[in-house]
Amino acid sequence: MNKNINVAVYDTHGNPADVLRVESRPWPTPGTGEAVVKMRAAPINPADLNQIEGKYPLRPELPATPGFEGAGVVVDLSANVANVAVGDLVILPHNVGTWRNAVVVKAEDLVVVPAGIEPVHAAMLKINPMTAWRLLHDYVDLRKGDWLIQNAANSAAGRAVIQIAHELGYKTVNVVRRAELIDELRTEGGDVVLVDGENLCDEVKGATGGAPIRLGLNAIGGESALRLANCLAPGSTLVTFGAMSLHPLKIPNGLLIFKDLRFRGIWINKWYDNATKEQRMEAFRQLFEMAKRGLLKTKVEKAYPLSEAKVAVAHAAQGKRGGKIILEFGD
Question: CATH code at 219?
């Protein structure tokens, strides 16, 4: 086995392509209750870039290694570990920094992935599909046939919402910015796909037959979020989980007074921190079952080796991508 590993590191906050570097470190050794995981894949998520830029609530001590998400194979264990075994494919916790060839982790924090799920898909189940699962379960008691509406429907989280909602029998109105995404998202299970614009409410009413929409999912903020809120039925809930536009959500008084809308938010890292192990595993079991059937496969535009981390983060920062940028570490 290699005596050294490569690790992505930044010493200061700034543009990820400028401040990120890759350095060599000794191969990790497990302490009591720990496992060494050889990484297989780690995505580059917006939160990763925001953390390197210094714009994210979680700020590790510098120098730091990025990577909230990833999957790998257990290659070494301390003697007293029983919940994982050498050879297990596992999902990493969000506080270890996954952009490295291998990492030592508390074994109790690892989630073992069942057979039948490829490492690259396992690496991307923890944030976007889990966010989608929570969005569809924690805010409004939806039943089969009920409608929900979301913006940024072509994002990784948006596609997960489409796939999970379709599986659960909910109907989705999916708002995008580019017409060329309509057929693609319809094929993935989106019931209605519309291009965002000033006439969105009328188009939604026409497409849904005026059905009440009780749940809105906002990943953009600004005017897009307001248009979503205006599509909701009285007493409904808009949940914000992203701010792609970087513009605040300004809520007109009338939406509170006359429509009695609820405005909520979710940060999946905080959900993980507050959930019991049983709650986390129950949700993972559901996601694993769907993943084993070929659902929840996050689209990948390009994979890079860790040695090209600077190029990879520059690519990930570009708009209008067709999928995730990921780091792959080989077998």
Answer: 3.40.50.720
CB 223 within 8 A of CB 247: yes
For 97-142, write each residue's pLDDT tens digit: 999 999 999 999 999 999 999 999 999 999 999 999 999 999 999 9
Q: Is 56 a catalytic residue?
A: yes
pLDDT per residue as tens digits for the range 250-287: 999 999 999 999 999 999 999 999 999 999 999 999 99
Give the C-alpha separation, 309 to 288, whole Å.
29
Strands (E) across 59-212 are located at: 71-77, 89-91, 102-106, 111-112, 147-150, 171-176, 192-195
H-state helical runs in 54-92:
none
Domain span including residue 196: 128-269
- CATH number at 305 reads 3.90.180.10
Catalytic residue among 10, 56, 272, 304: 56
Residue at 274 is within a domain:
no
Sheet strands (E) in 182-299: 192-195, 213-218, 237-240, 262-265
Same structural domain for residues 116 and 132? Answer: no
Is pTM beyond 0.85 here? Answer: yes
Domains in the chain, number = 2
